[in-house]
Amino acid sequence: xxxxxxxxxxxxxxxxxxxxxxxxxxxxxxxxxxxxxxxxxxxxxxxxxxxxxxxxxxxxxxxxxxxxxxxxxxxxxxxxxxx
Length: 83
Hints:
Blueprint: E1 5-8, E2 12-20, H1 27-48, E3 53-61, H2 63-82
Parallel strand pairs: 2-3
Antiparallel strand pairs: 1-2
Helix pairs in contact: 1-2
């Protein structure tokens, strides 16, 4: 797994991006992409340490896809906040 962006400035800043702006047929891919991003954030925390890691998930999605992906977004949010 590879993070989209990592910046070292006193701490590792891990940034994951997800483009879920497609049509309704892309909903499964959007959920998978968000879930994979959550795994990348968790792996970064495990590798670099909880105290020296800051994480962010940046995404774009239609309102319908955001509603469908909400459980995955919340899981990623918990991972990012716990870092």
